[in-house]
Amino acid sequence: MTIPTYITIFRLLCIPFFVALAICYSLSVKDGAADETLRWSAVAIFIIASVSDALDGYLARKLKQFSKLGAFLDPLADKCLLLFALTTLAVFPWGPEGWRLPVWFIVLVVVRDIIIVGGLWILHHYQTGVQIKPHWSGKVCTVTQMIALGWVMLKWVPFSPLYPAVLASIFTIWSGVSYFQLGLTLIRKAPSNHE
């Protein structure tokens, strides 16, 4: 196993620690005695896990250590980290009433990802070895979702997390439509001799 793959596995292992700390902090808020050490510990783990994403990619290129396992685990770890964080901060509030991500936003994110995974399966059926490169709208989607997470976790802005969630939703839908259109284009170009 390569060094970048170990880092990716480390990122996956960070997820349950973040979730546990996030839930414990939410419960302390609910009890009226918010334990800020729990919050900052959860934030620190999330930041470390996020930075590890850039690190494993950098090391893979620098050391020329690429593997099929790493290529599979890296996007899986990224998506799991983001989805678990978003879901946790939708179900367990980190502040007064309303200081959480809306549940409809999480449903939208999950449905978009299910559609994309289903689309990839269909593309695999139509033509082998399809390489889907990230679309710019997908990258903006991820950035806006991270902003929504940071909005809730850092508590620096006194306005409701609904605002960044709405912004992230726009790009979530936009990127989903972009990938759907790309998938249709690839299916139309696929050889017609598939079974």
UniProtKB/TrEMBL annotation:
Keyword Transmembrane applies: yes
Keywords for the protein's UniProt record, in alphabetical order: Lipid biosynthesis, Lipid metabolism, Membrane, Phospholipid biosynthesis, Phospholipid metabolism, Transferase, Transmembrane, Transmembrane helix
GO terms, biological process: glycerophospholipid biosynthetic process
Domain of life of the organism encoding this protein: Bacteria
One Gene Ontology molecular-function label: CDP-diacylglycerol-glycerol-3-phosphate 3-phosphatidyltransferase activity
EC number in record: 2.7.8.5
PROSITE patterns: CDP_ALCOHOL_P_TRANSF
Pfam families membership: CDP-OH_P_transf
Pathways per UniProt: Phospholipid metabolism; phosphatidylglycerol biosynthesis; phosphatidylglycerol from CDP-diacylglycerol: step 1/2
GO CC aspect terms: membrane
Annotated family: Belongs to the CDP-alcohol phosphatidyltransferase class-I family.
Protein name as annotated: CDP-diacylglycerol--glycerol-3-phosphate 3-phosphatidyltransferase
Taxonomic source organism: Roseibacillus persicicus
